[in-house]
């Protein structure tokens, strides 16, 4: 009767038509999933893993390499929880496919400490209570490590803007800033 | 003394190294993956659902729909399940996103792909999309928490008092759909072995979840174990079992493998709780001297079509300020929306936005300073319980907050403070949260190696409770916190109070405290009775404990360690229980936590974007167990509410009611750069009437009143009163420039 109803019916129908016809080739291909043998250097260790070509780098780290420190907060590139260093640069591992990175070097939160010795940024997060639930923390810390590498002269005032890609719903932001500022000072003084 | 020390979190190392285990990190041999299919329409029915392509897709082990799901047991009502309908109950659709099918497959990618292949043929009905559309349905709710949380109440004769008051204001306030948006999406891993079920799940209350899961699956509760390791934030949306947890459990039974189900971010937004839109009408009457005569507070909130779920926004109305009469009424109006969930801070959050804003409006009407107006209406006793408040240092909070903030620099009228292109405004509000408590149990074990362990089912959701409870155990036993282990988040452990409603410190804290004291007492008695002990024969009250050692308080060098005592006596350990029961409080008083917020905003005259540049929060929560974690939590609560005041809103499509952009890209939670300087302090006075430790809840009161404080500052800056949150720039462009 109403336009709305009709439109929705068509939409619903359209959806299944799409599945059956228009999108059929792509779907058919995807439903015989290809795997690829991938070599990565993860936290300094060379690993070879057979991955589904559809798998994100994040899922590959978590599901295949059992490195669950890197978190999935959104799977949409919107939260920063999945941040890893890829060939030294910060990337959102949920937004990139593993197979695109043959031969790359990946550093995750598990790869920052030197044995039992925490990375200065990790130490600073612990001492400044730079988290509450801790779910965003791996991403915050890896992001901060990348940030400090890119900006050795980082000022305190720049931190909030440059860390705004990493959401923290617990909002430990003040302490996150303090932790990064302390780590930045430490690394400057250390030089 | 361990209590009151700014210790680092006990799990800090795990959290900074990535070793911390959350539910979605759990892995079991043979584990398979599930993915859900949600409804594309908001109201109607599944005419047909075609799962053949999904079933044929590689790796797929099962596809569950309402047509083939296993039988549920019990009824949602009897089990106090939070919805009135089990998942996949039938073909009817009551809200957008409603789960219609679940796919189980060998890998995550296979499950996600196969879920896409499920084709649904809908019969669509018109939806009630918005609160405004639902208003004609507004009605008195029927729900199970009456009269604990009343929806209708009157003290005195508010209508007559309003009519007689010197000044009256009548205003309408609105809050939108808010999402809890914890960073961790809900996750479940279900595993059957020999007729017993283990469920790893993101839960704020494992012992509360167990009977629901067991009941719905038709399994005796003692054959179900629920484990919630670390929780990646919750804010209320992990307080109860959601459908996918039940589905993962039945699917695991069906496929004979452990099933992991992690919902998507979109599903977190659509099907795992939110705070529904609330409309509040407030009429306030006062005399010229500022004394409040009457408040009539009438609210309507959206409720799911299947059941009544009132939001208690009237909670602060009759209990925060001295009033001669009050009338409150809560109504609900049915909308095609997903099930809401209690959200930090239920009732008081939205309620205090309205009451705190109305008080501010009144202050201008009367020409009385907003702080002074509140002082004049200070309330010494709980008006309904007719008992004096215990531990109410609200006046001190006003003083301390005003001093730290520099309130005396406030211009008396709006639009008087400028700094370059910015309008500057000051606002404030009171904060109050009733101190709820509940039964809680804990065990403390002192071992012959000089260490101790706390065992209670509490979940660490980010509040720092593993740390503060460790400090409590350290205080009780006299063993250093770094020698104390903690086991939590598991139904095999004694039942703590749930980790919601700010109950951990008071209730679980008391249980741990009593268990620790008892364990120490048993050890002391052992020493007294032991002829080889240096403490032999001493009266019990002369025995103190510190640094893992019992000693004579009159001659501290005389004593021995727990280790020596237990080893000599051939005791492996001392295990004692503590129990917090509801009768534990001094019945002569009423209990709450209190606070005051002061906010400075700056508003760019051209962009009209509001920035909170400074915020001062002062709280009276009894004794503070750990100032480091407490301050962090308080700042977090303030920012949480700041998001609701300035930027957060789930926008519903005006025709279908569907959330237009259920994603973190569009639902703007505050980011680092949104947060200015937040100064948190405490007026610290132990409240021993409330709990033997003198400490009370913190996580919720800190977020109460922030919305009003910010809205009041916005008005003070720019002269525009925004009564519908969030205060986005579009609502400020209309005003004078
Ligand atoms: S999970 Fe990658 S940005 Fe959120
Ligand atoms: S610590 Fe919980 S989200 Fe950042």
Question: What would the keywords be for this entry?
Answer:
heterodimer; A: 191 residues; alpha+beta; Ubiquitin-like (UB roll); five-stranded mixed β-sheet; 5 strands; globular; B: 737 residues; Aldehyde Oxidoreductase, domain 3; Aldehyde Oxidoreductase, domain 4; 3 domains; binds FE2/S2 (inorganic) cluster
Chain-averaged pLDDT of chain A: 86
Q: Using the alpha-carbon principal axes, give the shape of chain A.
A: globular
Quaternary structure state of the chains depicted: heterodimer
Put simply, the count of helices of chain B is 17
- N→C terminal distance of chain B: 57 Å
Largest interface comes to: A-B, 75 and 79 residues
Q: How many discrete structural domains of chain B?
A: 3
Largest sheet of chain A: 5 strands, mixed
What is the topology, as strand order, of the major beta sheet of chain B? Answer: 3-5-1-12-9-10-11
Sequence stretches where pLDDT stays below 50 over 5 or more residues of chain B: none
Overall description:
Chain A: This is (2Fe-2S)-binding protein. The complex is a heterodimer of chains A (191) and B (737). In chain A, a hairpin with a 2-residue loop joins strand 3 (83-86) and strand 4. Chain A is of the alpha+beta class and 191 residues long. Chain A has 3 domains: 1-32; 35-111, Beta-grasp domain (Ubiquitin-like (UB roll)), CATH 3.10.20.30; 120-189, [2Fe-2S]-binding domain (DNA polymerase, domain 1, Orthogonal Bundle). Chain A contains 7 helices and 5 strands. In chain A, strands 2-1-5-3-4 form a 5-stranded mixed sheet, with helices on both faces. Chain B contains 17 helices and 29 strands. With 737 residues, chain B is of the alpha+beta class. Chain B is globular. In chain B, the strands form 6 sheets. In chain B, strands 3-5-1-12-9-10-11 form a 7-stranded mixed sheet. In chain B, strands 16, 17, 18, 19, 27, 28 and 29 form a 7-stranded mixed sheet that branches. The longest helix of chain B is centred in the C-terminal third of the chain and has 26 residues, at 504-529. The mean pLDDT of chain B is 96. Chains A and B meet through helix 1, helix 2, helix 3, helix 4 and helix 5 of A and helix 1, helix 4, strand 6 and helix 16 of B. Bound molecules: FE2/S2 (inorganic) cluster (2 copies). One FE2/S2 (inorganic) cluster sits between chains A (131-137, 168-170, 172) and B (183, 233, 462).
